[in-house]
């Protein structure tokens, strides 16, 4: 059973998907691209494991701190026919796991305020630690996938109760409960508006998103306003920081959102948010750049845009992380598959070759488990590195080649996804 058979999971993606579908409708033909795997040095990588290359990168200290190449795990996936395969890939491919759903608020505090059940989240953390790999927490505050008691009684809590009790208790309990050995937490997820415009104030960036807890009813701007500003975000970060100090952890605290570099206006809001937290003395260590892209000219960032965002975050003294990466394929032609490989490769390079990017994380492990295939749209989705039989695809080998190139001290490849008119390797 795929994770997409769960309605709540489907719901969680509505916003992101609207953006994705708009982009797909404007699909343009794949350009001819140049790939590292075309070169003799990177042609025969069948027997090289990604984990061995990650070990070289980390042993040689080629990054300013440990480099993580991660993917998702879900209770559902671990209990299917793919369980053995999944376990093997978290030994030879990924060195970090993030929970797809089981560390979200609805899972952690399901039945009533103050009644926590961290079992599902902790069991995925334990899976990661048993495999000797890192674990990222996702997430402590999001408008979506909240507990029913918080969704169904929108007028039952005052702003003061939310700000002083409900949010602080949830954030602190979860961060402390998962413990000091996590690498990072997405503290706040998707609080910024899709319709952000350059120059918007931070308050407008948040209010125009029309989401809870700005509005009592998520997505309903006619419902009463709860918070009139972005201070619930401060509250979440303040309490995550308190919790990590209590448990003596140096884990990183992230804000995580989509469109952070596709439309620069959302990037603008994210940077404003970071500046606002910093000027209030609230700790934030990074921005997670959710990367649900499509092999389509308008639906993924150019390499220049990726570096622009990483550099701006660096100038604020914080990290960028690639999170939730998959690349939707509109058709399964060889040209599209090659384009997909070049997009994965360019995004990986923009992280590898930035000194402030240490986590590169995929969303879903193989095509038959991908949330993309839960959508009733035409087209071939196949957005992951492994096919429906669990076999590595061309994008897998291209990603491996980019990692090897970096591990061997190679120069940063040019922007291959822009096509051979711009970049020939
Ligand atoms: C990979 O390993 C197998 C078994 O050791 C060997 O038969 C095969 O030739 C190797 N392939 C490459 C491309 O090195
Ligand atoms: C806590 O969650 C686990 C995993 O979802 C579940 O098996 C268990 O029954 C829950 N415990 C309680 C007390 O509800
Ligand atoms: C509303 O909150 C109060 C406590 O603040 C609680 O006693 C009551 O059960 C809640 N009502 C619902 C419907 O959840
Ligand atoms: C939006 O909220 C208002 C005020 O609470 C309510 O009257 C209206 O029915 C809601 N609309 C929808 C679509 O939920
Ligand atoms: C919420 O709490 C934060 C501190 O955590 C505070 O700065 C802010 O003013 C509070 N917001 C409201 C609306 O009370
Ligand atoms: C490519 O798509 C066509 C049409 O949907 C399908 O018949 C074919 O099996 C697909 N091939 C692969 C390799 O997925
Ligand atoms: C997909 O969409 C078509 C056309 O709108 C509809 O007839 C069909 O029932 C849908 N299938 C699923 C699985 O939702």
Automatic annotation (TrEMBL):
A Pfam family assignment: Glyco_hydro_10
Any GO BP annotation: xylan catabolic process
Enzyme class: hydrolase
Family statement: Belongs to the glycosyl hydrolase 10 (cellulase F) family.
GO molecular function, one term: endo-1,4-beta-xylanase activity
Keywords, comma-separated and alphabetical: Carbohydrate metabolism, Glycosidase, Hydrolase, Polysaccharide degradation, Signal, Xylan degradation
Lineage of source species: Eukaryota, Fungi, Dikarya, Basidiomycota, Agaricomycotina
Organism: Mycena indigotica
Domain GH10: 70-403
Descriptive protein name: Beta-xylanase
